[in-house]
Amino acid sequence: MTATTPATRPPRATSSWSGPGQPRRPAQRVARVLGRLVALAVILLWSLFPLYWALNTSLTTLSAATSRPARYWPSPLVLGSYQQLFGISTSRSGVAYQFGRSLLNATIESGGAMVLSVVVAVFAAYAFARLRFHFKRAIFVSVLATLLLPAYATLIPLYRIMSNVHLVNTYIGVILVYTSGFLPLAIWVLFNYFNNVPPELEEAALVDGTSPVGALLRVIVPVALPGIAATAIIVFLLGWAQFLFPLVLTSDLSTQPVTVIVAALNGQRIVPLTLLMAAGTLAAAVPGVIALVLNRHIIQGVTAGAVK
């Protein structure tokens, strides 16, 4: 009986496709990274180019800004538009006064809404996170459900209410309207933060005879300062960016914020394009600088409650 040698099998063909469990080839990784970089570049170009074009137009002369072909770099470089806005140029106009007053109005209205929203949200979020009372869940869900409503759907009712109580074209009216819109978001952010603060801190204060309000102000608020600061910054930026509500609720320069004034300048043919772009650039620079400088505090405040 002769021994048979096993037949040699042909080598198995290797597939060029890498399955889920197999490591990706270098070419695939490079293509994926390049795709992400291209997508990021397109998003940045789409978002930042209008801001750059406004800055470019504001830093040149009117003839250069309207010349053809377009100039993608300010040539000649002049600061006359910004000097005129700040009232330090030889040409006197009412634009500098209008712009300065609108900046003051925007600061007062956004700052007032920030303070009022944060104060009310601190007590409301603490009550929802710690206290027990009837219909607590239903009230909390009802407050958060207002975030789902289109903001402009409440514009006419709010105007009627403010008109009936004679608060149209006043700081108080604008601040109250801003607060009604920003308060649910502020409550939601602080509720998540308070819900992750260890309850033993306030329990120790209550054992020592402190009231619930005293425990909130003396124990919880100092611990939750990052979340409160983040909420305040977010509310201020939201207030600064408002346009339609102050457009309807304010009718003259005494209370109109900078967003409304820049739009009004756009309708005046006597305002040069370069001056209009300078006003828009400064109006956008204020929240941009705040977001860049305080970005770390915003992220820490919003995310700190989730990791405690």
Write the layout of secondary structure elements.
Blueprint: H1 26-58, H2 62-65, H3 80-85, H4 95-130, H5 136-145, H6 155-164, H7 171-195, H8 200-207, H9 212-223, H10 225-240, H11 244-249, H12 258-266, H13 273-293, H14 295-307
Helix pairs in contact: 1-13, 4-7, 4-10, 4-12, 7-10, 7-14, 8-9, 10-14, 12-13
Spatial gap, N to C terminus: 78 Å
The CATH homologous superfamily name of the largest domain equals: MetI-like
Spans where pLDDT lies below 50 across 5 or more residues: none
Roughly what is the average pLDDT, rounded to an integer? 84
- What is the CATH-assigned architecture of the largest domain? Orthogonal Bundle
- The CATH topology of the largest domain turns out to be MetI-like fold
CATH classification, class level of the largest domain:
Mainly Alpha
* Number of distinct helices: 14
Largest sheet: none
Strand content: under 5%
Radius of gyration: 29 Å
Tally of distinct domains: 2
Structural class: mainly alpha
Give the SSE string. HHHHHHHHHHHHHH
Shape: globular
Number of strands: 0
